[in-house]
Amino acid sequence: MSIFVNKDSKVIVQGITGGEGTKHTARMLAAGTQVVGGVNARKAGTTVSHTDGDGNAVELPVFGTVAEAMEQTGANVSVLFVPPAFTKDAVVEAIDAKIDLAVIITEGVPVQDSAEFWAYAQGKDTRLIGPNCPGIITPGEALAGITPATIAGKGPVGLVSKSGTLTYQMMFELRDFGFSTAIGIGGDPIIGTTHIDALEAFENDPETKAIVMIGEIGGDAEEKAAAYISEHVTKPVVGYVAGFTAPEGKTMGHAGAIVSDGAGTAQGKKEALEAAGVKVGKTPSETASLMRTILQGL
Question: CA-based Rg of the chain, rounded to a whole angstrom?
């Protein structure tokens, strides 16, 4: 089991012919993902050459629209490597095509555009992950995004993180245990899938035995997640909040990571999580150690 992607996921890449799309299509294929085609309206009808996870040459068709790609390939996941200026239109197209999952890797999407496609997705069939995220990986089955597939294998840990690099570090720290699914939800002020969405899915996944949640300063997502955990999550959760040393009023790294008027601080988030029974580490390594202790006791 896993959440949101598995070995049966059929993936298309919006922006498959661009530099990032080309590079990461190759890496997704190498990870064993069923990449079945791509979308670029200007290059519809052509193909791109790659090698699959078994070393076999594959020719992936390029379609003019997401709807056409889905009709021809049965795709149910799209990964978007589209420049920021065109990301909103690409997401709306994926939503209109009713694809199950759209993973928006692009960094620098205007917040107004994210707000508009987020609102457009409400009540519709498409789950959004991102923007400004590393995507999602179910080790050994499917990678939809840019997470290095060789860090860790399959195992009992579910991971949800605002930070891409901290996703990778936590996977490395706990590589001897492995992961059911690791999902990077992105650090922008407006994102699709939230900590709570992932926590709910991990809670319902029988293969996930424990959950690591990585947050960061800014906003109130972690506080909301803490309230959700206290009411709905029965599995052990450990947490880490990035940004204990961040100065107030300065955006740190992610567009959403800003503390103002004392709200959104790392300490406040840590206290909220601990009140919900979550063990919170002061560093990523300490957080991994807390999880290691829990896993050894299961």
Answer: 19
* DSSP 8-state code for residue 53: T
- Are 125 and 153 in contact by the 8 Å Cβ rule? The answer is no
Supply 94's token pair. 């994926």
Among the options 24, 50, 195, 254, which is catalytic? 254
Query: Which of 150, 160, 204, 203 minimizes the C-alpha distance to 181?
Result: 160
Whole-number pLDDT of residue 263:
66
User: What confidence tens digit (pLDDT) does each residue in 47-65 have?
Assistant: 999 999 999 999 999 999 9
Measured between alpha carbons, how far is 31 from 141 in angstroms, rounded to an integer?
Answer: 8
| Measured distance CA(240)–CA(254) in Å, rounded | 16
Contact 186, 195 (CB under 8 A): no
Rounded to an integer, what distance in angstroms lies between the CA atom of residue 291 and that of residue 286?
Answer: 9
Both tokens of 183, joined, read 């999902």
Exposure on the CB side of residue 130, measured as CA atoms within 13 A: 30
Choose among 222, 204, 205: nearest CA to 213.
222
Q: Select from 103, 98, 127 the least CA-distant residue to 15.
A: 103
Tens-place pLDDT, residues 99-143 = 999 999 999 999 999 999 999 999 999 999 999 999 999 999 999
State yes or no: is 254 an active-site residue. yes
Query: Comparing C-alpha atoms, which of 57, 25, 58 is closest to residue 40?
Result: 25
d(C-alpha 280, C-alpha 267), whole Å:
10
